[in-house]
Amino acid sequence: MPLSGLQIYKLLPQTNCKECGFPTCLAFAMKLAAKQADLKDCPYVSDEAKAKLEAASAPPIRLVEIHGGDGRLAVGNETVLFRHEKTFYHPPGLFLHLQDSEDLQALGAKVAEADAYEADYVGIPLRLDGFAVEAASGDAGAFAAAVSAVRERSQKPLILLAPQAALARAGLEAAQGTRPLLYAADGENWEAMAEVAKSADVPLAVRADSLEALADLTQKLAQTGVEDLVLDPQVSGYLDSLHRLTAIRRLALKKNFRPLGYPMITFPGQAQGADELLLAAEHIAKYAGFIVLDHFDQAELYALLVLRQNIYTDPQKPIQVQPGLYEINNPDKDAPLMVTTNFSITYFSVANEVEGSGWPAWLMVADAEGMSVLTAWAAGKFDAERIAKGVKAFNVDDKVKHHKLIIPGHVAVLSGELEEELPGWEIMVGPREAVDIGSYLKAMWSAS
To answer: Strand pairing partners for 57?
Structure first.
């Protein structure tokens, strides 16, 4: 169980040296207990105490990382059951299931299409995370060729679905230079798979049809020295997924049950009688770390990626865009100048409407700490002083030759204050809704 601040304090040197950045060892201990400090900040802690504290402070769900040629994925290390308690940190990876029994040319084309997929969501690029290659043929040579074919067309992380040691070694050799997830050890092959995973220093998935069997296997594997494990509880549908995945998460977090304190992998396309898209969505919310999809469909993948982005966005830190002066439709010095906040949804709502209207325009994005227009104004984060500061900081005078600034209609009250902050400028009150920007510019804008 996690140690309390007082228990941690008893293991510290109690010198109050302040070298950790805190006034007393007790204050440092309290921060350690709250996971707001790092043990390495104490230069005088003994080796014995360090071992005890590190064991007690280890995250309830182990962080497991895999990587390809140019991409990394880390899952686990979560600390809460529900996002509103704190936040979720490491989004689950979405992988496309491939088989080595496919024609290599067709396999390569499928990989190239999926690898090239990218969607823009309020300035955030959304992509597939990697590929899960299955040794369906049972032939080590065919499996190695398939892994090589995938790597020729994508540098994304891999999952190697090869439950036999010989197949696993062939796949790992073809994936040399990367760190894939090896799938899977079970009650019959765990010793051989442990040896392969340990020698290659790659994480190993463990599968069993009960939580008791899973826990037994992870303890055996941990004793062999394989520390990076991933659990496959072999869920079979909506209700079964909810029960098993939640039970594992709850046991790891609430009971600090170390044998189940690992990320999980699921295969929603293989559940009988369940829709792959719906089940994958459930697995994103509750609580998979790796999700292997049988089908690649851009519309369905986009829906899953957006869902994942929303769930794994810190609710206390709104999605923001970088403050600055943005060009839309290649504006010149006579183009209108508008201002809005750096809340991403607000920015993209305005930018998309301006772009769709065909008007060339300059859009100045003020730093409002990621709040929408009305929220930022009410909080004092979008006021005349900040807007005027942005005009100067972003060198607006170098971009436009007129002195007209269009502000959102919801904050018309700022017009008088802005005229005081920006002498010689004309402050125009724009529409209250972004959808009306095109008609507003057509009716109201003139640079003269």
So the answer is: none
Q: Which domains, from first to last, does the chain contain?
A: 5-57 (1.10.15.40), 64-311 (3.20.20.20), 324-444 (3.40.50.11600)
Distance between terminal CA atoms of the chain?
71
Q: What one-letter code names the amino acid at 417?
A: E
For 50-82, b/e burial (b = at least 16 CB within 10 A) is eebbeebeeebbbbbbbbbeebebbbbbbeebe
Whole-angstrom Cα Rg for the chain: 27
Q: Which residues pair with 326 in a beta bridge?
A: 363
Mean pLDDT of 437-441: 94
Q: Can you tell me the distance from the alpha carbon of 20 to that of 1, in angstroms, rounded to the nearest whole number?
A: 25
Q: Which of 204, 123, 122, 121 is nearest to 161 (CA)?
A: 204
| Token pair belonging to 255 | 């009971």
pLDDT by residue (tens digit) across 233-250? 999 999 999 999 999 999
* pLDDT tens readout for residues 267-287: 999 988 899 999 999 999 999
What per-residue confidence (pLDDT) applies to 172? 97
DSSP 8-state symbol, 412: G
Residue 172 one-letter amino acid: L
Nearest Cα to 279, choosing from 313, 304, 311, 246? 304
